[in-house]
Amino acid sequence: MERLRERRRQAEARWQELKSGSVFFVGAATCGVAAGAEAVIDRLRRDIERYGLNARVIRAGCLGPCCFEPIVIVRRPGLPECCYGPVDAEAAGKILERHVMGGELCPEWALGVLTAEPWQDIPSFWDHPMMKGQVRRVLANCGMIDPEDPDHYLARGGYAGLERALGMTPEAVIEEVLASGLRGRGGAGFPTGKKWQFARAAEGSPKYLICNADEGDPGAFMNRSLLEGDPHAVLEGMLIAGYAIGATEGYIYCRAEYPLAIRRLETAIAQMREMGLLGERILGTDFSFDLHIKQGAGAFVCGEETALIASIEGSRGMPRPKPPFPAQRGLWGKPTVIQNVETLGNLPLILRNGAAWFAEVGTPQSRGTKTFALAGKVARTGLIEVPLGTPLRQIVMDIGGGMVTGKAPKAAQTGGPSGGCIPAEKFDLPVDYESLGAAGSIMGSGGMIVLDEDSCMVDIARYFLTFTQQESCGKCVPCRIGTRAMLQLLENISKGLGRPEDLEQLEEIAETVKSGSLCGLGQTAPNPVLTTLRYFRHEYEEHIVKGQCAAFACRKLVWYRIDPDRCKGCGVCLRVCPAEAIQGEKGEPHRIIDEKCIHCGSCLTACPPSSAAIYRESGDLKRVEARRQLATTTG
Amino acid sequence: MDSSTADSAAVVQDIVAAFPSGRGSLIPILQEIQRRLGYISPESLKTLERLTGISATEAYGVATFYTQFRFTRPGRHRIQVCNGTACHVRGGAQVLEELERRLGISVGETTADGAFSLERVACLGCCALSPVVAVDGKVYAGMTPKKVPVVLREYAGQDGRAARQEA
């Protein structure tokens, strides 16, 4: 224990020393790099050398407001820390000259100063509309520290939670977590402390702890950001959980699509070993624990506990019936607890600050904060953290800034392929486990995709069902056949081949799949269909009765037209058309042959804005009728 | 047995030796085989069977369950088109179609000259920058059908230069 305290003192000294010079924290998580962070880092390093400055560039994790990436936080003695974005290489050069060398802030790129108060005419970053309303606890370190330097984590209170836990009995740790009201952040929301009680009481040894980092929901990146931005927080959480349940071995099951997260974890694990935080008799106590990383190989169903265990055991990742629950018989037949990344990330905070502190925010049933990956048509996209119970409207309209298109929001999709669509008129709904469940959706792991008028709800339901149908492992009949049957109906509807009775049939199959499937994948797969049918039935009816997709998303229902009065006959559309469906002489108005058209929209994109002669329409009953006839005659 | 088969057998042997024995190592071994050899060939599964006793059909059954594994030789450049929800609602499908048209292949295939292979992946986790495409792991944000030829040229050019240098 003394060794850790000594190490923390050194870390704090190094952290203070870092403040004596200038520092650039560049957001270099996967998203930041995609937005061009590397060029910014190169430029800053070159200029620092060129001017011989006492300054450092640190590759930090993701601060959250991805829409403003690349993001750079600049720290310089004598000035408040300032967050800039978006910053390209050229802007980075100017910021270096003016902020670090000239001693003045650069309002044109500033998102805000990292102090509570504004500075001159630059507002506080925390008052930025995207940040106001957020409570950053789990994400507090992301973007603010070097995730590859354990001293940064230590200096900001890292491993203090573990230190406290190891001074308590495992039962007392479980009590603390129970009292906090923490529920699993992976989707189902089972009370974490309860799960631990079962595992602690279960017979069998050794016991295992698994961190589920197989973030498979398309549209979710909370776990990636946390693992990339603050890996030690998740690992400290694993030590606390391992101690509480009496586990001696832990696995991190991380998807292979997250190479940077895996690298950061490997680095952090090596550092823990060096600090005496892994292995035999950790910090001189009786607690021994070791960690392994397992890379997922791409199977959504492996987010399900028993499927994940099968995958670690080297088999096809297929779920098995429960009970026995993994807490009784899990990995290699031994008691096993599986926790989501974010659940683990909360543990060091609960142990460090106490259960009462944790429960200060949230609702009585849903305590604490939750991170969300806010994406889709919203103006400000990124990773956010809000108290549970925050109204959906505040998340979409205030933090997200409304629609990027300026149009009206239509719905928010939560919980990914297992969740549902909440319509805009229900945006006053507080985001907690119970309210989302009552609305037909689920909390899920935190993916939140906002849809506007240009999104078609039939298309969204079809999209998610395509996904779950492909990812169904095929073990149980309701899921294997049911998802396929529902998908077939949805595909017909989106092509204009739907029949009015299809909607009832969809509902019937959906209920069967929901009640009859073996695991969570099948039980929740109908949610996107059921919620869109519940709230947006008229859209389905428009597709079926009028052959119309008002959002122009179901391409087989979209027809392209050329306005002969506007067409100058330039021939651009004719050349880009991959189906040779456009005819016309040079200089004469062109026309589209509907029978040949593959509805790709290339002509619309290609038509020069000066002419803007091509437009689209949907709801051509005659055409749809002809297709329906053709489908019936050809079977 | 030609020399490349012999080489791949040696690689598989190296890999198997580096992992603890036992069924739990099967997927990590397959992942390493794919990382080093580019794909899972029938030959490497046979070598694996000889070394571990896990039958080739059993290992193939496990591998085909997971989308990560490929069973044909990939192109020199690997294009991954994200099919995540955010990418879908912002037009990812149109980007994929344009790639298919430009390359003259369907998703899951490799161009005849072996330069590009095209994959659709569930989610790359860059939803806030959607739609995204990754080429050889480099992520391109905010893709549109119009940007497709620009991105492809970056790699076709590289490839052309390499070919000229070899010649």
Note the topology.
The complex is a heterodimer of chains A (635) and B (167).
Chain A: H1 2-18, E1 22-27, H2 30-35, H3 37-51, E2 55-60, E3 72-75, E4 82-84, H4 89-101, E5 110-113, H5 150-155, H6 160-166, H7 170-180, H8 192-201, E6 208-213, H9 222-229, H10 231-245, E7 249-255, H11 259-274, E8 290-296, H12 305-312, E9 336-340, H13 341-353, H14 355-358, E10 369-376, E11 382-387, H15 392-399, E12 409-414, E13 420-423, H16 433-438, E14 447-452, H17 457-471, H18 477-494, H19 502-516, H20 520-524, H21 527-535, H22 537-546, E15 558-562, H23 572-576, E16 582-583, E17 591-592, H24 602-606, E18 614-618, H25 621-634
Parallel strand pairs in A: 1-2, 6-7, 6-9, 7-8, 10-14
Antiparallel strand pairs in A: 1-3, 3-4, 4-5, 10-11, 12-13, 12-14, 15-18, 16-17
Helix pairs in contact in A: 3-4, 6-10, 6-13, 7-8, 7-10, 9-10, 9-11, 10-13, 17-18, 18-19, 19-21
Chain B: H1 3-18, H2 26-37, H3 42-52, H4 56-65, E1 77-82, H5 85-89, H6 92-103, E2 116-121, E3 133-135, E4 138-140, H7 148-166
Parallel strand pairs in B: 1-2
Antiparallel strand pairs in B: 1-3, 3-4
Helix pairs in contact in B: 1-2, 1-3, 3-4
